[in-house]
Each structure stands twice: as structure tokens, then as C-alpha cells.
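Hi W.,

Here's what went into the run:
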Amino acid sequence: EPEVTQTPSHQVTQMGQEVILRCVPISNHLYFYWYRQILGQKVEFLVSFYNNEISEKSEIFDDQFSVERPDGSNFTLKIRSTKLEDSAMYFCARGTGIEKTGELFFGEGSRLTVL
Amino acid sequence: AQSVTQPDIHITVSEGASLELRCNYSYGATPYLFWYVQSPGQGLQLLLKYFSGDTLVQGIKGFEAEFKRSQSSFNLRKPSVHWSDAAEYFCAVGHMYNAGNMLTFGGGTRLMVKP
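Here's what came out:
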């Protein structure tokens, strides 16, 4: 059973449309992360989220991206205006709660296809 | 900046044969090292991790990895491969910062198992 549940498993959207990907942890944690994997490429860090704030983000995470945890449970990644190059598998991950261990537990991913 | 190299993009082994997947990293301090496995259509599952101490670490599914500081390597091994081990394997180095952990992944090695 995955540590986090991600929805949708697959979304197809038109270029320029907004997309929201959701992540629900099984248990309550403070540290959350989004990674993405473009087909055939490396898994890349996007953003980390701690105590309801962004704590670190990569250069990929530009103004088109945002994250929030609106209800204290769901953790969302929003892409405001999708581009073709946003097509990828997006993985949510949670930390252990003892972050010095560095261990991350990933969800099964949300595949985004931008047409 | 940290980086991870997995020199082998594809590896094919016969069922029952031994396996070694190579991983080299570049990191300025003592690294936190991980191996994850991704089965088709699935998320990333942690196989094993190295933080400190014994340089030979044991993981799930009969895998082990050895940290060699002098070679900047963290190779994954399994003495006898099973058909169900066919998957993509990712080595990662963790970067600890104030509020969490950021993983840098290698490009992955796709393992195919011949009957």
C-alpha cells in the first residue's frame, strides 16, 4: 500500500489549461515533496513543503507552479497554464517526520499528458 | 552541486544469475545514499539506504549495497535475480537542509531478466 495516495492517476489536458494534482498522505506528516519524471529522463526535484510553507524549490518550479495544503490533509500541485513540456509523471512524497534520516516515501504518481 | 551517475542504462541478466548495478555520486560531504525501484506503472519504492556506519547495507527483496567512499560508489547487488526483479532502478543522493531532504537521482538502470 502506498504511503501517499495520488489523484488522478492519469490526466490529459489541453495546452494552456490549469491542472491540479492531489496527494493525500496516509498518516499525518509535516514534510511533503513533489518530484517529476519526464518520459525517459531522470526523476527531478520540484519543491518541498514543510509546516504549510515552501521550504525549497528548484529552478523548474517557476511561477506557473504552486503548492498548497488547503485543508491540512490534501497536498496539491497546481500548474496554472500547462505547456507541452509539462507532460510527465508527477510524484508526491512524504518525509519520515525525522528529516535527518532523509528517507522519502513516494506515491504511485500522476501521469500528466498535455496536448 | 551533487550529482549521481548510473553508467548502465540497460542490463539484461538471466534468472538466477547475480546482479550488480553501478552508481557513482558526487557530493561535497558525507552522502546519504538510496536505491529506489520502479516497476512498470508504479511509484518509487525504497530498497535500501545508507546514512552512516556499516558500509554494507541490506535492503528489501534480498538486495544489498556497498558504500565505497574512495570510489564514490554505492553499487547495488543481488546474488540471485528473480523474474519479478525486472524494473527500473534509481540511485539517489540526499541533500539535507534546514527543513527537509532533497534527493538527486541518477538516470536509472532498466533491468531485464531472461528466463
